[in-house]
Design brief:
heterodimer, A: 191 residues, alpha+beta, 5-stranded antiparallel sheet, 30% strand, rod-shaped, B: 476 residues, alpha/beta, 31 strands
Chain lengths: 191, 476
């Protein structure tokens, strides 16, 4: 007769091998889901706002640099020629410098050199040049005759525009720009 | 049977937690870095503007001192804070510290004036704003201005009220008696001729009234400006460059924002050699035995000049310069008769300061010669109206050619004649009768006459090469 003697399993070991109950699993999964959702949402928001912040930063940097450059050119300009309501050419230290709104980019061109975008991604129909005479009265630029008259009377120039950046799943970031009225210090407006 | 090790489970959780924390930390660090960059850029942009304002303040200091010397000859640069440059006695320099910046920023502007006592000084300002903290580093702006003296006669015909051309064939153009077209000085002044004529005659009125500049049938080869309404041009008149067709205005040459100041003038304060009372007979100045003042000018005084068929003559050795102050506030000059006239010898000059009406008829004024080639420059015959209120009637006739400068803020000036009129006229209102051809002398724009300096060129020095030219003088 063969007698099998089962060795007794210790109580503690039996307890550790016991599986989770369904209720425990559901609670654990629920809590994990909540925590993960929180972490993922926070992470997603961080990422999205970081991207928007980057866009704002980019527009801000472009804008500041452009206004500095534009101010330098306008202050030193000795002549001003209005090519259209959205394009103007200054003579600066013997060179011509043309600023224009071209295909929703604000561009700067020295002489016949390369056209460079100084502010990219403008919101359509937001760009505007404004010209003022010696007394601060605004000069119309709508027609060719207006612009010809403004060539000899422009003493102050102002620009305004709105830049924008958009990416998928991100709300569009916009940056509204309104410059000071820069005075053309070397232009004599009265003969 | 292999059992999983509970301790390795705990390790996985730790690694996952660490990874998530690391990702969030990197995101936050990027955020912080972006914010920091943005703040630095904003801060530097703010102080960049401050540096530009500081540089301009420095230039204001320079202009104040330059013009103060004109207004007050006893003004002393050194006691006002300037010091003579160690590299040139003709230059001065100074430093002005800026106060009131926030965030512990500090600033100063160094100013250097080249040729501070000369006729065309140049001032260069170098402003430096030093930022404190982590956005540190300094910001510099370099600005240069070229100065030149203003002139009351920087335009041909200038009126507070109206300018009228009543003749059918009147014209306005210009020439430069002292400089060639490339800006270099001529060997000696030349008179007006077709060969040196330019289409830069200028006519301006600060009046906003319609017809403040009534061109009618005159040809304005140059510019016209008013304070408001466009000039009116008749069927045979024009305003523009050579080639402009009759009855039209070139809008590049017309502006409606004209501004001008009509500062009153006062008579010279020098003690006259003699007071004549009424000059009613032939008189030639300077007389034998008269000695000029220290500035080389003969100063005289008279109640008025009032005669018919007589001659008031300025002639003598060494091209005498005569200044006569008249005191009659009603009628200062009344010259008539068929042969009454004022004659000024070739090279001589006459300045008249008069508070009353002026009428020079008869043979009019002979300034040098009776052709544009032989006439003296217009600055050799100057009429200064010193009346400060009411109307001062001024009627002048030329003798073949009238070469003159008239400055009379209250003056109602009528220039009669069919010949050439050279020079410049500044008055309350101006009428050119007859078919006079008016020629503005562009060299008058550089005439000083004790006027303050103005900025003729403003430039920001942005490149290293531009700054290097002044670096040695602005690095103390």
């Amino acid at each position: 007769m063969i007698t099998t003697i089962l060795s007794p399993v210790p109580e503690a070991k039996r307890q550790s091998r016991r599986g989770f109950t369904l209720v425990e699993m559901m609670i654990a999964a629920g809590i994990s889901a909540l925590i993960l959702t929180g972490i993922m949402t926070t992470f997603l928001h961080l990422g999205r706002s970081g991207a928007r912040f980057q866009n704002y930063n980019d527009m801000e940097a472009q804008t500041r640099r452009t206004l500095e450059l534009f101010a330098q050119d306008v202050r030193q300009a000795s002549t001003v020629t209005w090519n259209s309501a959205t394009s103007v050419t200054f003579t600066v230290n013997g060179l011509t410098v043309t600023y224009a709104n071209s295909a929703n980019n604000f561009t700067r061109q020295i002489g016949a050199g390369a056209v460079g975008n100084v502010i990219s991604g403008l919101t359509p129909n937001t760009f505007q040049f404004r010209a003022f005479n010696l007394d601060g009265t605004e000069l119309p630029l709508a027609t060719a005759a207006n612009r010809t008259a403004a060539n000899s009377s422009t003493k102050q120039v102002q620009i305004s525009m709105q830049a924008e950046r958009s990416q998928q799943t991100l709300a569009t970031a916009t940056n509204t720009v309104l410059s000071a009225r820069f005075i053309l210090r070397n232009v004599i407006v009265t003969a | 049977m292999k059992h999983s090790n509970p301790s390795s489970n705990r390790g996985s959780a730790l690694i996952v937690a660490l990874l998530i924390s690391a990702i969030i930390a990197v995101s936050l660090a990027s955020y912080m870095q972006l914010s920091r960059t943005s703040m630095t850029v904003s801060n530097r942009a703010l102080y960049s503007n401050a540096a530009m304002n500081l540089a301009e303040n420095g230039l204001e200091e320079a202009m104040y001192s330059i013009n103060q010397k004109i207004a007050d000859s006893s003004y002393n640069w050194v006691t006002d804070g300037w010091s003579i440059s160690p590299s040139s006695a003709a230059d001065v320099r100074r430093t002005v510290a800026a106060t009131g910046f926030d965030q512990n920023a500090t600033g100063q502007v160094r100013i250097y004036v080249y040729g501070y006592a000369g006729t065309s000084p140049v001032a260069v300002a170098r402003s430096t704003v030093t930022l404190a903290g982590t956005t540190g580093g300094s910001i510099e702006k370099w600005v240069q201005i070229q100065l030149r003296k203003t002139s009351k006669f920087s335009n041909g015909l200038v009126a507070k009220d109206s300018i009228t051309f009543s003749g059918n064939n009147a014209s306005v153009d210009s020439w430069n008696s002292e400089k060639l077209d490339d800006g270099t000085l001529r060997g000696s002044p030349v008179g007006y001729s077709a060969g040196v004529a330019h289409d830069k005659g200028s006519v301006g009125s600060i009046s906003v009234a319609v017809n403040s500049v009534a061109v009618q049938n005159a040809d304005i080869w140059g510019y016209a400006a008013t304070g408001g309404a466009l000039p009116s041009v008749g069927a045979n008149g024009l305003i523009g460059p050579y080639g402009t067709t009759s009855g039209s205005m070139d809008m590049d040459r017309v502006s409606t924002d004209f501004a001008a100041s009509f500062d009153p003038v006062s008579s010279p304060t020098q003690t006259p050699i003699v007071s004549f009372g009424v000059i009613n007979n032939n008189l030639s100045l300077p007389r034998l035995g008269d000695f000029p003042a220290a500035d080389g000018i003969y100063y005289y005084e008279a109640t008025r000049i009032d005669f018919n068929n007589k001659t008031f003559n300025i002639v003598g050795l060494g091209n005498p310069q005569v200044v006569i102050t008249l005191t009659d506030t009603s009628t200062s000059i009344d010259i008539g008769g068929g042969s009454g006239e004022i004659t000024i010898g070739s090279g001589a000059s006459l300045e008249i300061f008069a508070p009353g009406d002026i009428k020079i008829a008869g043979n009019g004024v002979l300034n040098g010669g009776n052709t544009t080639a032989t006439a003296n420059q217009s600055k050799n015959f100057q009429i200064w109206g010193t009346k400060t209120s009411g109307v001062q009637d001024i009627q002048i006739a030329g003798n073949g050619v009238l070469s003159t400068l008239v400055y009379a803020p209250q003056g109602s000036v009528k220039i009669n004649g069919n010949g050439d009129v050279c020079g410049s006229v500044i008055a309350n209102d101006i009428t050119l009768t007859g078919n006079a051809a008016f020629h503005y002398d562009e060299s008058l724009a550089d005439m000083d006459g004790g006027n303050p300096f103005r900025i003729s060129r403003w430039s920001e020095l942005t490149s290293a090469a531009q700054r290097a030219a002044h670096s040695a003088n602005l690095s103390w």
